[in-house]
Design goal:
The chain is of the alpha/beta class. It is about 40% helix and about 25% strand. The structure holds glutamine. Glutamine (GLN) binds near residues 112, 115, 162 and 201.
């Protein structure tokens, strides 16, 4: 990066291109032989702001620690933004609104443990997948649902417009589905016996079960899915850059490291 810093001081115009060079730091930097190499985290954002739409009640992918949204998606997005020479801004909204935010240009990307589906691909493009999600069923430990077979006719909670919502509605009928804007509300409804089960993603399910007495996850997995980043159809330039960044961040161990930090191997 030192080399680039010199170039930068020569011509302001080159500053705009620093995001492109940032991608070269992987092969260009050699910390062991060049102790003065600055950590890439100090790269000054010069290419503006990357805005990310998310629903920040989805631990460990996105959740609040104090005022700050942290988690796997937040950290991967920050690493991508850094590669693009951009700063990252995360906007918390209902999951239901994240795709619209991207479509209308309110956000550059939606990253929300979002599953790739054919239906969503009609509205947005998806990056390459960076993680796997599993739909599971959360129930009360002493409730009436002990296996998937018991779900028929029961009141099932979902987060509005998630794949859990789509599967549950298709398999058990709209009349049996209770839709919530946030999982936390579905979890309190389950804890207070207002609903019998929640169909949701495995990792946040584990986190909610750990934080709330008397809940458990059924052993049978409901569906296995791919998580990816949603980007507006017309923004193919960003899609290419995000995919290139994802590849570099996977190959150099950054993304596996972030995932392992939040989801320790069992
Ligand atoms: N993976 C699920 C989906 O994409 C849920 C995502 C979420 O609620 N944040 O629909």
């Amino acid at each position: 990066m030192k080399k680039y810093a010199k170039i930068l001081s020569l011509a302001l115009a080159v500053m705009l291109a620093v995001g492109l060079f940032a991608g070269c730091s992987q092969d260009g930097s050699n910390p062991s032989t060049n102790p003065s190499t600055e950590p890439t985290t100090s790269t000054e954002p010069t290419n503006g702001t990357l805005t990310m739409a998310t629903e920040a009640g989805f631990p460990p992918y996105e959740y609040y620690e104090g005022e700050q949204i942290i988690g796997i998606d937040a950290e991967i997005a920050a690493a991508i933004a850094e590669k693009l020479g951009m700063s990252l801004q995360i906007d918390d909204m209902d999951f239901d609104s994240t795709i619209t935010a991207v479509q209308t240009g309110k956000a550059d990307i939606a990253m929300a443990g979002m599953t790739v589906t054919e239906e969503r691909m009609k509205s947005v493009n998806f990056s390459d997948s960076y993680a796997t999600g599993i739909q599971v069923v959360v129930v009360a430990e002493n409730g009436s649902v002990a296996s998937l077979d018991d779900l028929a006719g029961k009141s099932i909670g979902v987060q509005q417009n998630t794949t859990g919502d789509i599967y549950a509605t298709g398999d058990y009928g709209d009349e049996n589905i209770q839709r919530f804007a946030r999982y936390a509300d579905a979890v309190s409804a389950l804890s207070t016996g207002k609903i019998d089960a929640i169909i949701m993603d495995n990792e946040p399910a584990k986190s909610f079960v750990a934080a709330n007495e008397g809940l458990k996850i059924l052993d049978t997995e409901y569906a296995v899915e791919d998580y990816a980043i949603a980007i507006a159809k017309e923004n193919t330039d960003l899609l290419d850059k995000v995919n290139a960044a994802l590849k570099e961040l996977t190959d150099d161990g950054t993304i596996p490291g972030i995932i392992a930090k939040y989801i320790p191997a069992e």
